[in-house]
Amino acid sequence: MMESQQEPNVTIPPLIPLEYSNRVMLKTILECGDDQIGLFGKTVVVGGWVKSSKEVKREPVAAALKPPTAAEAFPPSPGPKELSCVEVVQSRIPFFKKIIRVFGVSSDSYPGVREKFEPVPKPPPPPSKFFLQINDGSSISSLMVVIDSAVVPVYAGHVLPTGTCILAQGVLEKSSSHGKQTIELKVEKILHIGTVEPDTYPLSRKRLPLDSLRDYPHIRPRTTTVASITRIRDTLDFAAHTFFHNHGFLHVQVPIITTIDSEGFSEKFQVTTSKKWGLGSGSDADVRHETVKAEQHIEAREKSKLGTGVKPEVKEDFFGRQSYLSVSGRLHLESYACALGNVYSFGPRFRAEKTGSIKQVAEMWVVEVEIAFSQLEDSMKCAEDCFKFLCKWILDHCPQDMKFVTKRIDKTIVHRLEYMMSISYERISYREAVDILRKVTDKTFETKLRWGVPLTAEHLSYLADDHYKRPVIIYDYPKAVKPFYVRLNDDGKTVAAFDMVVPKMGTVITGSQSEERLDMLSARMKEFDLSRDQYEWYQDLRKHGTVKHSGFRLGFDLMVLLMTGLTDVRDVVPFPRTHGKANN
User: Fold this and answer.
1) What φ, ψ does residue 362 adopt, rounded to 5°?
2) Structural domains of the chain in order of their starting residue, each with its CATH number
3) Nearest CA to 169 among 154, 191, 152, 153?
4) Contact assessment for residue 44 and residue 32, using Cβ atoms and an 8 Å cutoff
5) Mind listing the pLDDT tens digit for each residue in 201-240?
6) How far apart, in whole angstroms, are the C-alpha atoms of residue 392 and residue 422?
7) pLDDT (tens digit, 9 = 90+) per residue, 75-110?
8) Which DSSP state fits 574?
9) HEC states along 122-135?
10) Phi/psi at 215 (nearest 5 deg)?
11) Are the CB atoms for 343 and 249 separated by under 8 Å?
């Protein structure tokens, strides 16, 4: 006996509408793999923006212009009543009118007929179908949406152009095309159409280069590339919080406005409400009462240090003293580490440097970490573990976006991330780095290298890309090239600081062990000629229950740059601020 053939089990993935917008994300439809067949026949509401559109018109019915047959022209009378000749002629006027128009005869030649004929209404446009590729930002792929002109008759004969926003209800069906997609939406009802001006819409042109998209930061998220970058950035954000929460860190928000200079090497943005800075006059100045001025420290470092030089009159200013946008939050973070143990912060930091570097903008987001009861070695290990965790998280949670990045931007990006996840990182001292670079004979560096000067980008690139071909952690830097709060080593010449240098990227993480000894910290502050009054609270941490502690700073925007294979940080920052440019 033959066994009855059983139908294969079909898994029907859930199509749960978003709680606050009552629509289904396209990702749940497009990324369910072989289970898409279980969605056929489901009614859903979707929304998105048109990526491409095409209108297919049906052939118009030509029978209306054919001359009628004798039976059609002169049908038998419905009743016994006989018609007069005048009534018969009047009943055939529409037919005569068609004959005249077919032969191109103007009704002006027959004024009598013109008076009798009624205006002919314009024939309706022929029926058509719209085939739209729409995307709502949840997925790399777009959904084919098929709309009959009967559903939106007002658009018949007009293509819905790229950039149009649409919200529609329809039934999911097997795709009628022979493309890559196996599913499409047949629209039953249009709930919203947001029109677009094709002549001024920046994305009407196909494949606008990234440098041109920077002029439209408010529109560029609609491109496939920037949308993919944004999803990777979001995933990396979540991964960073996940790593630190998994390891018992507390998230602490540190201030953006500060009165201290935590680095001592960077030009800062000064915050002021004073009208003294010449931001206008009269009512214009009143409107812009609260302003932010970039104070460029062009003079020698000795004249720009806090506590020295000529200060502007700030007694009437909002804070009553010089205030700046924060360059680093690690000093404030230390106060919480000395009470709560392991803490981290995530936020923007600001540098007012007129640099042309493609890896720096005025406002950059960073992750800053502080670990109590730890030394330099502990921070280096935490930094390496964090970096590897982020690489793995992106590969595990962004497969579609990383596939797109590999295809469009960098074919080796996935391989490089997998490689950096699986290997150990090289650790060398600053002195060892200098010795290696001095022995290089096949390359000439622009900056002459000697002990005691900072390593430049080309030095670091050679070590990571050419010499070791892997991430390198360089530690024990000369004390003159690192901030005042870094712990002085026993040799009295170097400090407990490190940089993590990654191939094709450069320095992604910088860290150090902080000076916990009050006398040593006071001596270092004196070397930097810093005001004791401004840093009194920081010295208090050494007076009252001091503890060894260390930490690091991870450049979040640089990590996004690394994960996407791009080279210019302006392409991964949603609204980049650079010298002379902050349009929106």
Assistant:
1) -65, -35
2) 16-56+126-206 (2.40.50.140), 224-272+317-571 (3.30.930.10)
3) 191
4) no
5) 999 877 889 999 999 999 999 999 999 999 999 999 999 9
6) 10
7) 555 555 555 665 555 566 666 666 666 555 555 555
8) S
9) CCCCCCEEEEEEEE
10) -75, -10
11) yes
